[in-house]
Amino acid sequence: MPTISYEINKLKNDRYAIHVRLSDGLKRVFRRKTGLTINIRNWDTKSNLPKQIDEIEKLKRKKLIDLREEIYNRYDTAILEEQEINKTWLDDCVESFMGIRKTTDKDRLTKYFDYYIKSVLPYKSQKGKTKGVSNRTIQKYNTLKDKIISFEKHTNKEYYIKDVSPKFGMEFDKYLSEVEKLGESTTGGYIAALKTMCMYAGDKDEMKNHPKVKSIGVYTGERKIKTILSIKELEAIKDANILDESLQIARDWLIIGCNTAQRVSDLLPLTKENIVTIDGSEVIELTNRKTGKELYIPLFDEVKEVLNKYDGGFPPNMSDQHFNRQIKKVAKIAKLTYLEYGELNNPETKRKEKGEFPKWKLVSSHIMRRSFATNYYGKYPTPLLMQITKHATEKQFREYIHKDAMDHVKQFEYEIEKKKKEANEKSKIVKLNNVG
The pTM is what? Predict the structure, then answer.
């Protein structure tokens, strides 16, 4: 007849884990965690069971007594069926009775990334409107998985979904910041994505995650320095005396980009075929590479002026890298040589560094979309601009151009004052006409 008892092993402070101990009479002893813990003061050393001091401890005591009876019954059945009694057999007994889910290969953090990327993200509902996430989001999770693999090598440990806790979040955050040398916004984005995935694993996939996974701290990082080309600076670029043909082409693409809000990946492939007439209006028609959605952009005068140079079409194409190099030269020729606070990549550290730099050095293809949003803001209704920039909400749009939530109120007040002045002017004209 086997002997089944309980013993406790220290965790931290006054908490102890309760283990079941099985001795089968053949000098073999097997142990298994029950999944229950207890304060040392509540443990009865005579019965090796929880003291009956409150409802919680009474429930634990009853559960352990029932588990012991279950193991005895299964033991008898196992002997009759000539099953092997070993650690695995005891694990099965405890896990089945206590409702403990077995850890599988899928529970490994890196393995769950594979499942989440292939089987969840492509079908995940986006606010009940669309199915699936963008390629950029999938790329983000693939990169995050690579960071976790590097973190496991750094700590010489394998991590499971259940290990992702607030403490894990802080340690991973520290690794990304100090070892990988990533910026706050990038690090914060990775922590938020990891938290989202692990919460999904527990809520939707019924996997065992850490009970405090929802308490993992997330943040957006420091407010980004957002460099733009002002209308005055764009005029200087437009009027600059540039003789080199390649630089002229780069300048023309830059002017188009700053007046269409397009990313370089959507801008440079444009050809004359992208110019179409809809309901009597000439527009640029394209499919946005990031969202896959069709986009129609009005032809502003600044764009038409450039297109006229190329017989109504777009300038000759050039690579993204060449474009970025050339527009810096264009900005330098246009005398954008004054210092401006911004961010530049340090070629030695390969990280962005903040500081004061000549403005021309801060000019890159990323400047075009934000320049459009900033320069046209207030001249046209924000919802119309959002149709071109493809921001989902006005809040996102205002944050993108560093406008506060009260800015639209200021605009409204300005329009009211403007209309009052116009009304006063009309009133004066009417009075003068009456006098005459």
Answer: 0.57
Please give the Cα distance from 253 to 314 (Å, whole number): 8
Q: Is pLDDT of 380 > 90? A: no
401 shares its domain with 412 = no
Could you read off the pLDDT of 316-336 as tens digits, one per residue?
Answer: 999 999 999 999 999 999 999
Give pLDDT, residue 430: 60
Structure tokens, 406: 């009260």
* Residues 47 and 196 placed together within one structural domain of the fold: no
Task: Note whether residue 223 is domain-resident.
Answer: no
Question: Do 22 and 30 meet the contact criterion of CB atoms below 8 Å apart?
Answer: yes
Q: How far is CA 359 from the centre of its chain?
A: 30
263 and 379 share one domain: yes
Is 86 part of any domain?
yes
Q: What phi-psi label fits residue 279: left (phi over 0), alpha (psi between -120 and 50 degrees) or beta? A: left
Q: Name the domain count of the chain.
A: 4
Contact at 8 Å (CB) between 277 and 268?
no
pLDDT for 347 beyond 70: yes
